[in-house]
Write a structure and sequence with these properties.
5 helices; seven-stranded mixed beta sheet; about 190 residues; binds guanosine-5'-triphosphate; binds magnesium ion; alpha/beta
Length: about 190
C-alpha cells in the first residue's frame, strides 16, 4: 500500500455530512484513547489525525481521502466514562448508523490495547456487530511496544483465542511501526 496523497475531507457530526461517494472505505474504531488516531497516522505515514493525552478527542467521524481512491475513516472512541451518558449514546448512534448504512464500507479495524489480557466486552460487541453487518473486521492490538516477549506470547495464546474464529488479528505499535506492513496488506486485500 503506497500512499502518495492524503486529503482531509470532512469532520462529520451527522450522516447528512458523510461524503457522497462510492469509493471504498476502511474505518477505524476503538475505545477512547486506545490509539486510533496514532494508528491511522502511522499507517499513512503522516500526521493527519489529532492525537492527545485527553481521552475523547475525536468526537466526530473524520473522513480522509487516500490516493483519490479510497477513504480512511476515524470514528469517535466509544466507552469513555467521563462524558455524559447522552453524549455517549449519541456517539454510539452515530457509529452504528455509519457502520450499518455505509454501503461502500469494506472493513473496520477495531483497535484494542494489547496490554488487556481479556478483550473488553465493548470491543467484542463491536467486532461481532461489524461481522453481523457482513463487513470485514480486523482486530488490531496496539501499543505492542509496551509488551515484553512473554506478554506478547500470552497475548497471542490467550487473548487472540477470545476472538471469533474467522478474524485475523494484528499486533501493532504506532511507536515502532510493528504490524504496519501486515495491516496494510490485509487492508489492500479488503479494498480490492
Ligand atoms: P481518542 O480520539 O481520544 O478516542 O483517542 P485515540 O484512540 O485516537 O488515541 P490517540 O491516538 O490520540 O492516542 C492516545 C494516547 O496513546 C497518546 O498519548 C498516544 O501517544 C498514545 N499511543 C498511541 N498509540 C501508541 C502506541 O502504539 N504505543 C505507545 N507506547 N503509545 C501509544
Ligand atoms: Mg482519536
Amino acid at each position: 500500500m503506497k500512499i502518495h496523497s492524503v486529503q482531509f475531507i470532512i469532520s462529520a457530526a451527522r450522516p447528512s455530512q458523510f461524503p457522497k461517494s462510492h469509493l471504498p472505505e476502511i474505518a477505524f474504531a476503538g475505545r477512547s484513547n486506545v490509539g486510533k488516531s496514532s494508528l491511522l497516522n502511522c499507517l499513512v505515514g503522516r500526521k493527519i489525525a489529532k492525537i492527545s493525552g485527553t481521552p475523547g478527542k475525536t468526537q466526530t467521524i473524520n473522513f480522509f481521502l487516500i490516493n483519490e481512491q479510497f477513504y480512511f475513516v476515524d470514528l469517535p472512541g466509544y466507552g469513555y466514562a467521563k462524558v455524559s451518558k447522552s453524549m455517549q449514546q449519541s456517539w454510539q448512534r452515530l457509529i452504528e448508523g455509519y457502520i450499518s448504512r455505509r454501503e461502500n464500507l469494506k472493513a473496520v479495524v477495531v483497535i484494542i490495547d494489547a496490554r488487556r489480557e481479556e478483550i473488553p466486552p465493548a470491543d467484542l460487541q463491536m467486532i461481532e456487530y461489524v461481522l453481523s453487518m457482513g463487513v470485514h473486521c480486523i482486530p488490531a492490538f496496539t501499543k505492542a511496544d509496551k509488551l515484553n516477549r512473554s506478554a506478547q506470547a500470552r497475548l497471542k495464546k490467550n487473548t487472540f483465542s477470545q476472538l471469533p474464529a474467522d478474524v485475523e488479528p494484528v499486533l501493532f505499535s504506532s511507536v515502532t511501526g510493528e504490524g504496519k506492513r501486515a495491516l496494510q496488506k490485509i487492508l489492500t486485500h479488503c479494498l480490492a
